[in-house]
Design a protein that fits this description.
Blueprint lengths: L2 H10 L9 H8 L13 H10 L17
Length: 69
């Protein structure tokens, strides 16, 4: 595995569905099922990333304080 694949594998192993012997084997064959974003530690970080980095939404300034990240 390349380093990025190993990092993604390690992060995905934290999910409950991969706590059996079969889970990690399936995961090694399907690393593209997950996306790993460095620095995202919780749902608020992910919400901020979606809005600020991915530019998926155009948010008017007067509504920015209404968003629960």
């Amino acid at each position: 595995m390349e380093e990025w694949e190993a990092n993604k594998f390690a992060a995905a192993m934290g999910f409950k569905e991969y706590n059996s012997v079969k889970g990690p084997i399936n995961l090694t064959q399907n690393p593209d099922c997950f996306e790993l974003y460095d620095g995202i530690l919780d749902e608020e970080d992910l919400g901020r990333y979606y809005i600020e980095k991915m530019c998926t939404l155009e948010i008017p300034e007067h509504l920015a304080s209404c968003i629960d990240l």
